[in-house]
Amino acid sequence: MYKGVFSATVTLFDSTGEIDYKANGRHIENLIKGGIKGFLFLGSIGEFYNLNPGEKRAFIDFVVDKVAGRVPVLIGTAGTDIREVIELSLYAEQSGADAVVIIQPYYMTLNETRAYAFYAQIARALTINIFLYNFPDRTGFSLPPSLIARLAREFDNIIGIKDTVDSISHTRQIIEAVRPVRPDFLVFSGFDEYLLQNMMFKGDGVISGLPNLVPELFASLTAAIEDNDLAIIKRLSGKLSGLMALYTKTDSFISAIKVAVSIRLPDICTDLREPGCDLDKKEKQEIIAYVEQVMSQES
User: Fold this and answer.
1) Residue range 60-80, pLDDT digits in tens
2) Residue 42: left if φ>0, alpha if ψ -120 to 50, beta else—which one?
3) List 7, 37, 44, 119, catalytic entry
4) Among 2, 91, 119, 133, which one carries the catalytic annotation?
5) For a surface tag, which of 6, 62, 160, 275 has the fewest beta carbons within 10 Å of its beta carbon?
6) Computed from CA positions of residues 243, 245, 249, 252, in that sequence, does the dihedral angle turn out positive or negative?
7) Where do the structural domains in the chain lie, given as residue ranges?
8) Chunked in runs of 10, what are the mean pLDDT values of the chain (299 residues)?
9) Catalytic residue among 37, 56, 66, 162
């Protein structure tokens, strides 16, 4: 059920800053047709931090209904108040989501003891499947493989992790630590370009941002890895490598991803909510030209 490429999906707003449900619905349909294996809504790239609790609940209801069980729906329920995290996770479960994805508090840096206590309290309060979310660039603390293995061993509903660490060695160490105590524990990388390495190390895929714009590339690359087709792996990995520059071409990688999505959905609004940084017309044109250049290359 949880295997392959999941889209950490952008949240599209209209020109007034309200959630554009029509545009989000079209985007969801495009991604499913493109071959993605699941969604993460309200993650970092989904601007969860810019939505109020009522908007999150309404959006959860919408995406669960729209996906309609065709692929798994993961919901980010991050927050700095553990009670709000639990409440939103319970709501996601009641709405029919398949799992929640929870990053540790992102303002107050935890240590290993406090991180364990945070996730243990949440796991005891929920029955829905839980993915840990390790993103030390945003939290100041990286979950150690030994802690991940302990949580996996002690709590059946903690079923996996999104490891957004720019080191495949860290992800490999998680796999090596957790599989002896929990063979079914799922390990996803959070960086798109680690799809190949993750699967080589017997991980489960990626939950990442670039599938928003090129779901077919990821579907084809996953199939080529499974078929051990080195020629296709080389060609598609080259395109993926080129697209990784979108994360650093602008001050806001979320803006860059949204602008790139507009190639497929040309009438969408690509704005972020304040205080997010939007791109000017020239920057948008440069992003679109760059994506088209990368995708047109033969190798």
Assistant:
1) 999 999 999 999 999 999 999
2) left
3) 44
4) 133
5) 275
6) positive
7) 4-228
8) 95 96 98 98 95 97 98 96 97 98 89 96 98 93 96 98 95 97 97 96 97 97 96 96 93 92 95 84 92 85
9) 162
